[in-house]
UniProtKB/TrEMBL annotation:
<dbReference type="InterPro" id="IPR051545">
    <property type="entry name" value="NAD(P)H_dehydrogenase_qn"/>
</dbReference>
<keyword id="KW-0560">Oxidoreductase</keyword>
<feature type="domain" description="Flavodoxin-like fold">
    <location>
        <begin position="1"/>
        <end position="214"/>
    </location>
</feature>
<dbReference type="GO" id="GO:0003955">
    <property type="term" value="F:NAD(P)H dehydrogenase (quinone) activity"/>
</dbReference>
<comment type="similarity">
    <text>Belongs to the NAD(P)H dehydrogenase (quinone) family.</text>
</comment>
<dbReference type="Pfam" id="PF02525">
    <property type="entry name" value="Flavodoxin_2"/>
</dbReference>
<dbReference type="InterPro" id="IPR003680">
    <property type="entry name" value="Flavodoxin_fold"/>
</dbReference>
<protein>
    <submittedName>
        <fullName>NAD(P)H-dependent oxidoreductase</fullName>
    </submittedName>
</protein>
<dbReference type="GO" id="GO:0005829">
    <property type="term" value="C:cytosol"/>
</dbReference>
<dbReference type="InterPro" id="IPR029039">
    <property type="entry name" value="Flavoprotein-like_sf"/>
</dbReference>
Amino acid sequence: MKVLLVYAHPEPRSLTGSLRDVARETLQAEGHEVVVSDLYADGWKAEVDRADFPPLTPDARLKVPAASGEAFTAGALTADVVAEQEKLLWADALILLFPLWWFSMPAILKGWVDRVYAYGFGYGVGEHNDTRWGDRYGEGMLAGKRAMLVVTAGGWADHYSDRGINGPINDLLFPINHGILHYPGYDVLPPFVVYQADRVDEAGFEAVAEDLRERMRTLATTRPLPYRRQNGGDYLIPSMRLCDGLGAPGATGFALHLDGAERGRAADTAGD
């Protein structure tokens, strides 16, 4: 497999940085090709602004989706964005490695998404009609590829449990897993999360590292999270509401967008 690691931490000696090294070394030992985008080391520009869209005239109002689509269609996006898009098209699998800061990804990684997922590439793909609402949520430019998160969190695992004060970790990561990865087509694997990151000692790190090595060894075989596909018949078009009768009785929120029958099988086989 060809694997892209997108790494976002300002300190190379951080736990996140060490996990990046473990992931890269394990994947390479398994015979995979690996490319790393180190956003802080590369000085990645996080903010979207007029400079991202060279065809935009100085007197034109900046409407980001329109300007993004025009620049993408014209092949006029900036070189740094094009380079990352080419990596995504090259890779069979994408791994995002980052610390959980304020319940989300660091701003530099969000800025990578904002700029690289141009209109016509990450969104705005496919025809919209009465039976199909574009190529997204399981379809799109990156369909057929795999993706997963490697996340470090400062809190305890209990803090991120179903009854934990921070909210369930799968709910916190849903906007990334479902909204950023599944939206353009990725098959999204269960995340790898390390809790109490600032308290991991040498022995604890070796245990974490071995768990991550196993996840990297099974990157091609781990069953993805069973997100429903938008155009698979589970949603009404164009309202995009889940059809009546789907989902567990009484279920609400994010859980509705997981296929219940598949969810148990995914939980049973994660990491196989």
